[in-house]
Design a protein that fits this description.
There is one protein chain. The protein has 20 helices and 13 strands. By secondary structure, it is an alpha/beta fold. The strands form three sheets. The chain has a six-stranded mixed β-sheet, sandwiched between helices. A five-stranded parallel β-sheet has the order 8-5-6-7-13. Strands 1-2 form a two-stranded antiparallel sheet. Helix 3 packs across helix 4. The mean pLDDT is 94. The protein binds pyridoxal-5'-phosphate. The site of pyridoxal-5'-phosphate has 17 residues, from helix 12.
Length: 431
């Protein structure tokens, strides 16, 4: 399997090269030359196939011969060694809980897979690698946890000061060792811009071996397909595939779901649920894509004004809007609606959503009102405890803090405060 750049001005790369490079030199995104088609009997028998086997089967064609089979099996089983339960909220809606990993975020899967692949590739090369990441919240914790103590790899994480929750901040500033947190006095888009500038800086790249760990990296992006197959494995209504609602920020998760769909995953429809950052919902109205400044919301991991993976979603549909709109709808949900949803679902269904899951739930609810015969799945991407400052005043109760979070809240914060100007980042990386 080879990957081309969506800008078409960079050489093809295999999985190993695409993972190590992060982004092609022409600033496009890597995209697989072909999308594998899954055999019919695989999907029909999916209930009888183990999660490890499913994940291996999905990812193997993308990794191809860059990692031997037994190593890949090992990587896959370490990546998914926690639960992905599909929980019933009511007769029309189920929640796929993706927050049972070590940092209580769905990004654990991508981060665990990528860190293990990179660790393996670095061992081959005998080189030292610096991973540079921008985070709007959950990426940082998942990446920090995934890479902690991986030999030969240093991780530098940029996050927007005062725009992530205290639990998220603790997760990325507590590990230390090979993990450095840089607190940017600006927005997530500033962090992402600085990271992009570093990757485009040939002077810097000559000096150090630099790569990304954002969802633009294929090793983080592709394993997100697993969720959708794990959901389908637990879905009990083969004749009526689910509508799948995905809380979307950088659009990595939903574009992985659409890739799974292109491989044969049964699904009725997809909903790209957004908060007030509505570049994509507006695109669905106007068919003109226009990035905007990110605005801060209570679902802060989705505060992205210019979603990187939008281009991959278009690529999957070969840039045919008429095809895209048959499969995907995009709906923007305000903070007020998000809060009302958390409250209502808690009081009426006795299920506690986090703000991101609540955005997806509210968007699915709107869609199902016009499609009453259908049923759906909300991807619940974070544990509600990570947003207790939002949740507790809404439900007027305290949420119990899991032990794995309690432990890190008491560790001293270690971060470097930085203005959102590239010269400061360059200076730091150069020394
Ligand atoms: C990152 C994140 C999202 C958005 O996922 P994308 O792949 O960037 O669209 C949604 N919810 C939570 C909790 C996240 O951390």
């Amino acid at each position: 399997m080879l990957y081309y750049s969506t800008n078409k001005k960079a050489p093809l790369a295999n999985f190993k090269e695409a993972t190590i490079n992060g982004q092609p030199a022409d600033s496009g995104l890597y995209f697989p030359q072909t999308i594998p088609l899954l055999p019919k009997n695989f999907l029909e028998n999916i209930k009888h196939i183990s999660r490890e086997e499913i994940a291996f089967k999905i990812i193997q064609p993308y990794v191809d011969n860059t990692i031997d089979e037994s190593t890949l099996q090992q990587i896959v089983s370490e990546t998914i060694n926690f639960n992905f339960p599909l929980t019933r909220i009511n007769e029309q809606v189920f929640s796929l809980e993706l927050f049972h990993g070590p940092t209580l975020a769905f990004k654990d899967v991508g981060a665990r897979f990528m860190s293990r692949c990179m660790g393996h590739f670095v061992k081959d090369n005998g080189k030292h690698l610096t991973v540079l990441v921008a985070t709007s919240g959950d990426t940082g914790g998942a990446v920090a946890n995934g890479f902690f103590d991986v030999e030969g790899v240093n991780v530098v994480i940029l996050y927007p000061s005062k725009k992530v929750s205290s639990v998220q901040e603790a997760q990325l500033t507590s590990p230390g060792k090979n993990i450095t947190a840089i607190e940017i006095d600006g927005s997530f888009d500033d962090c992402q811009r600085l990271v992009k500038l570093a990757f485009a800086d040939s002077q810097l790249k000559e000096k150090m071996f630099l790569t990304s760990a954002n969802s633009i990296n294929v090793a983080r992006w592709l394993p997100q397909q697993f969720y959708y197959f794990f959901a389908y494995r637990q879905w009990n209504n083969e004749n009526h595939p689910p509508v799948i609602s995905v809380p979307s920020g950088n659009f990595g998760n939903i574009s992985a779901g659409l890739l799974a769909y292109a491989s044969g995953l049964p699904a009725k429809h997809f909903i790209a649920a957004c908060n007030a950052n509505d570049a994509v919902p507006r695109f669905f109205q106007s068919q003109a894509f226009e990035a905007r400044e990110a605005v801060a919301t209570i679902s802060n991991a989705m505060d992205v004004g210019n979603p990187s993976n939008f281009i991959r979603m278009m690529e999957i549909f070969k840039h045919r809007f008429d095809h895209l709109k048959n499969v995907v709808s995009s709906i923007s949900i305000s903070d007020e609606e998000t809060i009302a949803t958390i409250k209502q679902v808690f009081e009426e269904e006795n299920y506690l959503l986090d703000p991101h899951g609540a955005v997806a739930y509210a968007a699915l609810h709107i869609y199902l009102q016009q499609h009453k015969e259908q049923t759906g799945i909300v991807l619940e991407t974070a544990h509600p405890i990570k947003f207790y400052n939002v949740i507790e005043p809404v439900i007027k109760q305290s949420v119990e803090i899991p032990d794995k979070i309690k432990a890190i809240l008491n560790i001293d914060k270690k971060s470097i405060l930085m203005k959102p100007e590239y010269k400061y980042l360059k200076e730091y990386l150069n020394t």
